[in-house]
Amino acid sequence: SQKIEQNSEALNIQEGKTATLTCNYTNYSPAYLQWYRQDPGRGPVFLLLIRENEKEKRKERLKVTFDTTLKQSLFHITASQPADSATYLCALDTGGFKTIFGAGTRLFVKA
Amino acid sequence: SQTIHQWPATLVQPVGSPLSLECTVEGTSNPNLYWYRQAAGRGLQLLFYSVGIGQISSEVPQNLSASRPQDRQFILSSKKLLLSDSGFYLCAWLAGHRNYGYTFGSGTRLTVV
After folding, report:
1. What is the share, in percent, of chain B residues with pLDDT greater than 70?
2. Chain B residues inside the 8 Å CB shell of A102
3. Is pLDDT of B19 > 90?
4. Sheet strands (E) in B53-86
5. Which residue is closest to A95 within chain B, CA to CA?
6. Rounded to the nearest 5 degrees, what angle is found at the Cα of B60, between the Cα atoms of B55 and B66?
């Protein structure tokens, strides 16, 4: 069956460091991979989308990589700030009507 | 600009009572609309999606139903709630151009007691 895994343990880092979050998947061939930010009690907010034929995508302090051979995406936040503290979800999209979301990884950035 | 409204924000309902959650979208026409449920520590579970008025695709639930009476309105219902229906319910809209991802509503926290 299709599975998507994100590190269930929270990630704690110091302000100014780079946060790296991992998304692994099996039995799936996504056309797109999306990353979202979710704050407690709120709906997820879309951050970035990367296509299967792209290796890397950047947006301001965010960088996403996509390795279809390893079936893995890495999400980086450089120069992290306490305001970056949230849960980050990855989502696999085949381009049809359905998207599979991971459970998310909580990030805590300490000042 | 496109916005999505979802209400109520929180709801506490007894077991066996009915449910109606409403979602409306503004600023777009013929959107693809979705209902997701999120349990604590779990990924978003797709419940229903709709590509147009009156068209509903059901993914999982036996106790829930959805309807789309108008182009920009999507309703999630239940005739009799179960304890297992508790969760965080999210309505979402997907733009035709996927570069913008899903736009989610603010969510409804449902507690069935």
Report:
1. 97
2. 43
3. yes
4. 55-58, 65-70, 73-78
5. B98
6. 35
Checking if the pLDDT of B97 tops 80, the result is no
Long-range contacts of A51-55, Cβ-Cβ distance < 8 Å, separation of 24 or more? none
Residues of B in Cβ contact (< 8 Å) with A46: 100-103
> Which residue, among A6, A38, A64, A105, would best test binding to B if mutated, counting the most B CBs under 10 Å from its CB?
A38
Q: Which of B41, B43, B104 sits opposite A43 (nearest CB)?
A: B104
Local mean pLDDT, 10-residue blocks, chain A (111 residues): 84 97 89 93 94 93 94 96 97 84 95 95
Give the strands of the sheet with B65-70, arranged side by side: B3-7, B19-26, B73-78, B65-70
Amino acid in the structure at residue B28 = T
Strand partners, A99: A93
Backbone angles phi, psi at B100, to 5 degrees: -100, 0
pLDDT > 90? residue B17:
yes
Bridge partners for A23 per DSSP: A6, A73
